[in-house]
Amino acid sequence: MPPIEIKPNVYWIGVNDRTTDLFEGLWPITQEGVSYNAYLIDDEKKAIIDLAKALKTDEFFGQIDQVTDISKLDYVVVNHMEPDHSGVLTTLRRIAPQVTILGTEKTRAMLASFYGITEGVQVVQDGETLSLGQHTLQFVYTPFVHWPETMVTYETGEQILFSCDAFGSYGAFRGAIFDDECIDPVFYEREALRYYVNIVAVFSRPVLKAIEKLASVPVSVIAPSHGLVWRKNPGHIVELYRKWAEYATGPTEAGVTLVYGSMYGNTEKMMNAVAQGISEEDVPVSIFDVTHTHVSYILPSLWTQRGVIVGAPTYEGSLFPPMVQVLEMAAVKKIQNKQAARFGSYGWSGGAQRHFEQLVEPLKWELAGSFEFVGSPTEEDLRHGEAFGAQFARLIKGDGETG
């Protein structure tokens, strides 16, 4: 995609990445892709805000060249040091050695440790402004959204918030970068939620602090480092992020995440009965097979929904290992204070329930019930499973208890 003018002399110069399989080496984006959004202000002084991953160096520099001579750049604003934002920096400095790098004090330290860059670095203070001519930049510290050095940059005249990782999403662009030109906004909203839970959710408190800090700032465009540029309704993505951040400690949605794993199909049979019971109570249920679904896609449901039912067998006296991995990642992401229950099969001895309870204890999940069965479920077992699902659904609605 060629550079796109967002406002007069303010350009999106980002690149799409449909090559990388794992974002941060961990989260799948093979199907979705991701954009590395960067922006160029072509004024008396020329500034780039945010950069791109090193594997996109040639393409990224080609974007700059379509707007201005890269060797004439004056400033590079590093809102965030993570290498998907700063990876081209070393090469850029070779081409434009005169460029001044702007960032926080912590950014200066990271520039030295990541890239050995110690010269031509200028620390900007929280609230400090910089005139480029017709455009003025203001720098606002937003620590731990989502690294300690992170800041956002605000263009005061056109009221553009270059928000870095805040308000971002997975998803490469499909020919349109703006929210009002996107033909599938639901895709980007879904990927924004997955991005939030995978990347930012641990820092929900700093996200809310940042939103509050910027609440009085008039914003006409939100230009994040990944995902759509919001110009028609920038407040929409802010409110989504606010809602998701509040889920960290506040009420979540009245739905059930049913995660299961089955070695030989016995636990899966029971899962279908439990799901039927939940559905009979008109409670939304999202079902994930942990042996086929990467945890990246499970975490958003766990984050947003109030109830969790785990269906997993005993494996060598412990919980089925793929389920253990999901629960351990839920702990890493601090998915806490859920209503939970578990069912599963065993062959000759149990042990999975005890292991399950140990895993969820630090998450402060309230255990509302459990049951186990030997081998393949009987018809009576399946009826019990259906009732179990219905009882749990009523609990989630607030009008019943499990047993």
Describe the 3D structure.
The structure is a single chain. The chain is α/β, with parallel strands linked by helices. The chain has two domains: 4-246, 4-Layer Sandwich (Metallo-beta-lactamase, Chain A); 253-395, Flavodoxin domain (Rossmann fold, 3-Layer(aba) Sandwich). The protein has twelve helices and 23 strands. The strands form six sheets. A seven-stranded mixed beta sheet has the order 1-2-7-8-9-10-11. The protein has a five-stranded mixed beta sheet with strand order 12-13-14-15-16, with no helix packed on it. It has a five-stranded parallel beta sheet with strand order 18-17-19-22-23, sandwiched between helices. A hairpin with a 2-residue loop joins strand 20 (314-315) and strand 21 (318-319). The model has no long low-confidence stretch (mean pLDDT 96).
> In CATH terms, what is the fold-level topology of the largest domain?
Metallo-beta-lactamase, Chain A
Radius of gyration: 24 Å
CATH class of the largest domain equals: Alpha Beta
How far the N terminus sits from the C terminus, by CA atoms, comes to: 57 Å
So how many helices? 12
Poorly predicted tracts of residues: none
Biggest sheet, in brief?
Answer: 7 strands, mixed
- Please estimate the helix content: 25-40%
Estimated structural class: alpha/beta
Number of domains: 2
CATH architecture label of the largest domain: 4-Layer Sandwich
> What fraction strand?
15-25%
- The residue-averaged pLDDT reads 96
